[in-house]
Every structure is written in C-alpha cells, then in structure tokens.
Design a protein that fits this description.
326 residues; mainly alpha; Ferritin; 2 domains; 10 helices; 0% strand
Amino acid sequence: MIVKATNEYLALLNSAAAREIQVSAQYMLQHTKMEKLRRKVIKENYLLEDTTYDEFGEILKDLAKEEMKHLAQIMARIYLLGGEATTKPDRVIIGNSLREFAELDVKAEEEALELYRIIIEAAKDIGDLETWVLFTKIYSDEEKHFLKFQDYVEMESEPDLGGTPDSEWRSIFGEEYVTLLNKALASEISAVVQYTNQHEKAEGLERMRRKKNALEVVTGKNKASVVSGILKETFLQEMEHMEKISDRIYEIDRESIATVDPLPEIGNSVDEFIKLDREAENYAIVLYRKIIAEATRLGDIKTRKLFEDIIQDEESHYWAFDDFLP
C-alpha cells in the first residue's frame, strides 16, 4: 500500500515543485540573456571563439532542462500520493550580469537544499521510501548545481560600458511591442507548466492508467497514455519556443519578463485536459497572429519569421488536441 500522505506533507512536496518551476525558467532565461551580455559587456569577446559567457550559458541551459526533469518527477509523485501538483512558481529573478546570475542561482540552490533536507526527513518519518529515494537523488543533483554556480560567484565584476545608444531602427521596438513579445513568452511558460503537470497527472493517477477493454490490455495503452505521450512531446517543443522568444527579446536589447500568464488550468480527466489544451493553443495562435501583424507593420522581419514558424507548431498542437475531443 502506498503511504498515506497528509496535507502538510503534500504542501511540502508542492513547495519543491514551485521551486523547480522557478529555477527552470530562471536558468533558461539567464541562458538566453548570456549572448546579450557577451556582446555588450566585453567588446573583445568578438575576437574569441569561446568565452566564459558561452561556457556558463550552456551550463544554464543544461541545468534548466535537468530542473524540468526534477519537476516532472516531483509532480508524478504528488499525483501518485493523491495530491494536486501546483502550477505556481516561486519568484523568478534573472539578474543583469554573469556574476549576478551566479549569486542568484547559488541562493536558489541553497534554499532548495534546505527545503529538500526537510522533505527527506519528513519522508523518512512517515515511511515514504520512494519519495525519500527521489529527493535523495534530486538533492545530490542540486548540490552539484550549487558547486557549479559557486565557481562563478568569485569572478571579477564585468566592466559597465553603459547602454547602447538608441537609433531610428531600434525605435520600432517600443514598450507596447515588447510587452506583446513578453506576453508570448508568458504564454509559453504557462503551456510548459500546464502540459508537464497534465502529463504527470495522467501517468500518476491510477484511474487514468486503468485499462477498460481487451484491446487496451493487449496494447498496454489507453486514451490517457496516448494523450500523455502527446503532452510530453508538446511541452518539450514549447520549451524551445520559450527559449527562442526570449532570445529575440534580448537580441533587440530589451528585457524578458518571466511570468506565467494565463494561469495554467489542469483539469481532472483526459477529456478536460484536451479541452483546456485546445483553448491554450487557441489563445497562443490568436496572440501570435497579432504579433506577426504588428511585426509586419513595423518592418521587423526577423520577429515575423520567428512567429510564423512557431505558429505552425501551435496549429499542429491545436489540431492534435482537436482530434481527441470527445
């Protein structure tokens, strides 16, 4: 029999999930901002094939993906124990320099290690061996992350060379336009959280895993498992979109804002997942058409092409969910 989890115990696990959402987004957006820093802060970087910025940027991207795996594992465990996984991250803080990234990330990892020690003890106290094993492994990963970030905290501060002078061309990237781009980024973060959560809920809830007819028993599949597979492919693609949109915002010398908007909706059945996900894709498609129209009006060809590519993916997601409507 799986251990009986109290509300307090599930709240602890959800604190871990909220932290993993936070650091995954934080590290990914720091990764995309790294190229901007590399260009602006030390001009000599143009002469180098590889720099500290390139090295640390790749570390951040890899760790963002690893934190997403942690999130998925924690959410799966919450659902297996009969709880509901959160969709709300802790506060994401990006920073403005390589050293500041490292300082913020060391702090985030310190807080995670402290929380996970509490969870490991709580799991031990109630005899939840699987959660104990899971968080012991995650704790080991986070300790390695902590040590990596510490290597960069001791670096000398980069020289502040000031902002780039504005120009007629750059003036097209006004506040309202950048707000639109950040709205797209927020929708991608929302989709990643929603689809990851639903994927783990479909995998974790026994009633969704149950096979109801001979064909399902023979194939080892049912509607929930098939939709779960689609959700996994989709949230991985949404993470790529998130990276590309943030990359473009930093490329035009503006700032990415990490929010989750609209708030993810999870649902309690596979049919509800499909309905909610179809609505999420509809929201994205309408928003991205607006961005394409505005980019065309402003003559921002690169952003237009970016969203034309992304919208093709979103339409594919929309029709995949539409095919499964009851």
